[in-house]
Amino acid sequence: DFIKVFAPATVANVCCGFDVLGFALDQPGDEVWVRQKESPGVTISAIEGICGLSTDPAENVVGIVAQKMLRELDVPFGVELQLHKGMPVGSGLGSSAASSAAAAFAVNELMGRPFTTQELVPFAMEGERLASGSAHADNVAPSLLGGFVLVRSYDPLDVIPLGVPLELYCTVVHPQVELKTSLARSILKKDIPLQKGIRQWGNLAGLMAGLLKADYSLVSRSLHDEIFEPERAFLIPLFRQAKEAALEAGALGAGISGSGPSIFALSATATQARQVEQAIQQVYANSGIDLNTYVTQV
Ligand code: HSE
């Protein structure tokens, strides 16, 4: 009698779109199960696939999201949640976002869809606020809406699903070291030199145009981040070598997935994406660092 919802991992930033751009993968992802209960409020009755996450609804992203929605809807009953983690936390693949998105979608289904999927984004963002200290939407929006999603503005929130016509494949390599988004954000410089800003918004506009005009060359020329990637690269073992290997193997572009440590690369074909995967695996071959890798169509 549970409603079961899957929400996928996501790649946020996509090089030049820090906090404003992300896309969804097919897998991995998390499941949230939900059913009605008579007593009011939210309980988390089980967490599977991972250890150490709190079942206190005020300390777990799925609980926070459900509580916000119940408060908004003012219903005379409560909800029981189960979280089935299918992906590692602190991976840079939007793990907390997938849980938050799945919770928002599941509770909305249970309630008879009072909200559109777009309207669920602010609820899911509350999970991100708990998990990372900042309510960014560049993971939750694509996890909920699919494909590439632009967050044009946070205030007011303006979330644009892009409907990209281009065939793209994503290689994701997750070196198994845990990196907290809050840490990877705390080390960033607060000011951006004008020259770097100009290059960044040129690239972001170029990436948007390339995706929507289905222009691989323009996408490739635009996949750069000269602001945040250099500041974060030291947090990820062998990042520079892995990125170089991906580009040498023919990727259109590569960078840090979200706040890392996962590395993503985009390719025009599935074969290319597999070659990129192998090239990055080679880099880590004798490093003693274990990898999870995923290749999916975007
Ligand atoms: N845009 C966020 C960051 C994504 O880079 O900090 C975190 O997954």
TrEMBL record:
InterPro entries: GHMP_kinase_C_dom, GHMP_kinase_C_sf, GHMP_kinase_N_dom, GHMP_knse_ATP-bd_CS, Homoserine_kinase, Ribosomal_Su5_D2-typ_SF, Ribsml_uS5_D2-typ_fold_subgr. GO terms for cellular component: cytoplasm. Residues 61-147 form the GHMP kinase N-terminal domain. It catalyses: L-homoserine + ATP = O-phospho-L-homoserine + ADP + H(+). It is an enzyme of class 2 (transferase). One of its GO terms (molecular function) is ATP binding. This is Homoserine kinase. It comes from Pontibacter ummariensis.
